[in-house]
Amino acid sequence: MGAEGLTALVEALRQQGYRVVGPTVRDGAIVLDEISSADELPHGWTAQHEAATYRVERREDDAVFGWAVGPHSWKQELLPSRVRLWRAAARNGDAPAIEQEPPPDRPLALLGARSCDLHAIAIQDRVFLEGRYVERDYAQRRDGAFIVAVNCGEPGGTCFCASMGTGPRAETGFDLALTELTEVGHRYLVEVGSERGRALVSALPVREASEDDRAAATKVTDDAVDRMGRRLETAGIQELLAANLEHPRFAEVAERCLTCGNCTLVCPTCFCTSVEDVNDLADGSAERWRSWDSCFSTEYSYIHGGSIRRSPRARYRQWLTHKFGTWFDQFGTSGCVGCGRCITWCPVGIDVTEELAAIRATDGEVDRGNAG
Fold first, then answer.
1. Residue 78: is it exposed, middle or buried by C-beta count within 10 angstroms (0-12/13-18/19+)?
2. The sheet that has 19-26: what strands, in order across it?
3. Cα–Cα distance, 344 to 229 (Å, whole number)
4. What is the 3-state secondary structure (H, E, C) of 117-151?
5. Domain ranges of the chain
6. Cα–Cα dist 62/186, whole Å
7. Which candidate, 76, 71, 65, places its Cα nearest to that of 224?
């Protein structure tokens, strides 16, 4: 379909009652927000990523999706940073009436999700929907969400999804997937991933893709693999970390780490939250709120008597070994999807691919009994 098809896609989703959330340029970044038309998408913009470095700049063409991931992930829509779970109101000495927070008034339509983010959503689905207990608020937001993926043709300098097997081409988890083709004209190859997607695309101005169209779309993602900004050797990584818990590299990183938690905030899979109960003495009501938290805060690991991870070294080690190691034990997959956000938005430029490579390079050379 041509550029007019993208306009029709946004209009069709809105007409079907979806709250359409997609990328837009604001405050010097490409962020995710509700949009009302395709005109609000980042036409002709791209972004440069390096460790502790991010900037948007103009492209030479009018590509809409010619950029890698931004500071926002879809986590902000499915697991908001702060949300009320319920409210309890006093009733003249009787048991309080508990009012659970109602579901959103409109289902979500996620426009522009990259393959790495689809894998991140699948990971959070396992955490919140497929365990013994279902997270009610997440389930309500996830229910009925329509996902329009975009195959990545412009990897960032910190991306390594090819190493993690999570991109740059979307394989599952979408209703529709677009590949932006800009070499000859400006058009999109559309792939259908669900019956809902098939029903929607039938109302769009599309034609049957030719073999040349399909070949051009394949070339977009193949070229993206070749231009990936980072690489990571993942073979045996779980065992590598388990055997190097006292590696001196953790202490070296701790000298730089600010324990600010930026990496966990921008990470699309980190799911640590805290719960706060708020009471109103005037009317006797109470509310329960859920907020994002981070394993980089001392309070997060607080158990009666104090925090069990008091040093930056201990907190960084916990995050890295959980993300790339023990996550496999809990959820059967890595907790990293290779989006590179943690590298880009770390204020001191700590690079997980560099740290893991350093541990691998000296594996077996560390005196386990004396390492700090």
1. buried
2. 29-34, 19-26, 108-113, 146-150, 176-181, 187-192
3. 11
4. HHHHHHHHHHHHHCCCCCCHHHHHHHCCCEEEEEC
5. 3-226, 237-361
6. 8
7. 65
What's the token pair of residue 29?
A: 């970044």
Cis peptide before 168 (omega within 30 of 0): yes
- Taking the C-alpha atoms of residue 203 and residue 242, their distance in angstroms, rounded to an integer, is 53
45-50/176-181 β-pairing: unpaired
Is the backbone of residue 148 left (phi > 0), alpha (psi -120 to 50) or beta? beta
Digit-by-digit pLDDT tens for the chain (372 residues) are 988 999 999 999 999 999 999 999 999 999 999 999 999 999 999 999 999 999 999 999 999 999 999 999 999 999 999 999 999 987 776 777 889 999 999 999 999 999 999 999 999 999 999 988 999 999 999 999 999 999 999 999 999 999 999 999 999 999 999 999 988 778 999 999 999 999 999 999 999 999 999 999 999 999 999 999 999 999 999 999 999 999 999 999 999 999 999 999 999 999 999 999 999 888 888 999 999 999 999 988 888 888 889 999 999 999 999 999 999 999 999 999 999 999 999 999 999 999 999 999 987 665 544 333
| pTM for the whole structure | 0.93
